[in-house]
Amino acid sequence: MPGYSYVKKTTIRWFFLCLMA
Questions:
Q1: Which helix (H) or strand (E) covers residue 1, if one does?
Q2: Measured in whole angstroms, how far is the alpha carbon of residue 14 from the centre of its chain?
Q3: Angle made by CA atoms 7, 1, 16, in degrees to the nearest 5
Q4: Dist. CA 21–CA 5, nearest whole Å
């Protein structure tokens, strides 16, 4: 999957944003 890395990175960023919110 070409966009798997991008999706994974975005998901991790979202997760951290939710934690810091």
A1: none
A2: 5
A3: 15
A4: 24
Per-residue tokens: 11: 């998901």
Helix boundaries (H) for 1-21: 4-20
Give the percent of the chain with pLDDT over 90. Answer: 71
Task: Read off φ and ψ for residue 12, nearest 5 degrees.
Answer: -65, -40
* pLDDT at residue 13 in the model: 95
What confidence tens digit (pLDDT) does each residue in 1-21 have?
A: 678 899 999 999 999 999 997
- The set of residues, in sequence order, having a beta carbon less than 8 Å from that of 1 and lying 6+ positions away, is none
